[in-house]
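Propose amino acids for all 415 sites.
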């Protein structure tokens, strides 16, 4: 099979890009012909065959000023240049299936329209809530919000969802509103959602249930699973408000003993979290910065539990799956897709968000009974081996690809 993966960034920038490259490697290793298309960018992976057809690079974070900002806003709604570029790529690569990932803003739905015009079947993996929420995260100024899911995107303007800025929020609301009104995503044959929670949000936003399929993420870490009970705790991910790392630091003030909370990652709150840890829990929190995957896996495997204190609706975070694959249980909040992964008392513990005292109680129980925590980790390891393995994920992808192609043939599309 010839598979073209499409994403705005073509370097390992985040979870969406990591998933795309990992799945592409799995597909290539079993004989599929795989290529990638997206935006021209100085950090793109080297040697991409279709690079001369890529969409022109544009910087949107931070957004450009002056007249350039108007051009960037127009590109977010519809990009003729992106459409021309992917048309050239389609003609050259001749894919059997196009697999979209994050194409919002820099590429726009124009690339989906181009694939539809070329009569090529396509699927789209949902890595966030953008189709239902103008600001991606179901958050309004840091607070949980689903106002735009089932009603107009004007709520994003009223609540100034984008960093409190009226102008930036208006741009996002207009972009999403135009896309909804024009049915910009209607040409996607099938949406793949890693969690039931995200699938339900997208369904409530107006996507027909028959066009959404739940397909869990895949995990295949290179690290060795924990061989016995660990001692410390670890939180890994972006150091930003929605991740709730500050809650974990506050909880450490009530965890007895000399247990250390290891923090692996970087982000806009790095300095404020350092200051908070120094003030509230001196000597109890150790910051490692962003670690290479092998080092991170070794750190997680040495701990009694991974902490996911998110205050937003996580979809299906790889930090949970990677911890499970290392035989380490997870203590997480009960938002979004997290309860679909973490079964309270079996593979970890669930706590309410923004409740450091409740989190501290669970962490204390883990640290005080590491043998029971290790048993939870062993059950989590069994879960990922059966439901989140590369083999099961590829089988699910193959079924989705086949069903989309058969559906188009049955409907007489592309005949």
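Proposal:
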């Amino acid at each position: 099979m010839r598979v073209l993966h499409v994403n705005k960034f073509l370097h390992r920038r985040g979870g969406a890009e990591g998933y795309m490259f990992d799945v592409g490697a799995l597909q290539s290793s079993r004989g599929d012909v795989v290529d990638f298309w997206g935006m021209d960018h100085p950090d793109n992976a080297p040697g991409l065959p279709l690079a001369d057809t890529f969409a022109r690079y544009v910087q949107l974070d931070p957004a450009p000023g002056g007249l350039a900002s108007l051009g960037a806003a127009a590109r977010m709604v519809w990009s003729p240049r992106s459409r021309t570029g992917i048309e050239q790529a389609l003609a050259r690569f001749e894919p059997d299936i196009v697999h979209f990932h994050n194409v919002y803003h820099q590429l726009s739905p124009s690339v989906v329209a181009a694939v539809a015009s070329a009569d090529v079947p396509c699927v789209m993996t949902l890595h966030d809530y953008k189709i239902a929420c103008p600001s991606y995260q179901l958050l309004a100024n840091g607070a949980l919000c689903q106002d735009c899911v089932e009603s107009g995107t004007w709520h994003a303007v009223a609540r100034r969802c984008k960093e409190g800025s009226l102008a930036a929020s208006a741009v996002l609301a207009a972009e999403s509103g135009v896309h909804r009104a024009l049915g910009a995503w209607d040409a996607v044959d099938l949406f793949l959602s890693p969690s039931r929670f995200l699938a339900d949000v997208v369904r409530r936003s107006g996507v027909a249930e028959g066009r959404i399929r739940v397909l869990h993420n895949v995990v295949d870490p290179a690290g060795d699973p924990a061989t016995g009970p660990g001692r410390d705790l670890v939180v890994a991910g972006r150091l930003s408000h929605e991740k709730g790392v500050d809650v974990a630091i506050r909880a450490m003030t009530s965890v007895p003993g000399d247990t250390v909370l290891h923090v692996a990652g970087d982000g806009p709150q790095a300095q404020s979290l350092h200051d908070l840890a120094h003030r509230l829990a001196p000597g109890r929190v150790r910051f490692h910065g962003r670690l290479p995957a092998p080092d991170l896996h070794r750190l997680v495997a040495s701990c009694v539990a991974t902490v996911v204190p998110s205050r937003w609706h996580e979809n299906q975070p790889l930090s949970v799956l990677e911890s499970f694959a290392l035989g380490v249980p997870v203590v997480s909040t009960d938002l979004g897709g997290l309860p679909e992964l973490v079964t309270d008392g079996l593979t970890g513990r669930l706590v309410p968000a923004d409740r450091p005292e409740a989190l501290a109680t669970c962490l204390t129980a883990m640290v005080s009974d590491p043998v029971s925590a290790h048993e939870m980790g062993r059950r989590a390891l069994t879960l990922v081996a059966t439901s989140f393995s590369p083999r099961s994920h590829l089988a699910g992808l193959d079924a989705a690809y086949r069903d989309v192609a058969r559906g188009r043939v049955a409907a007489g599309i592309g005949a």
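The chain has two domains: 2-219+390-410, 232-387. DSSP finds 15 helices and 14 strands in the chain.
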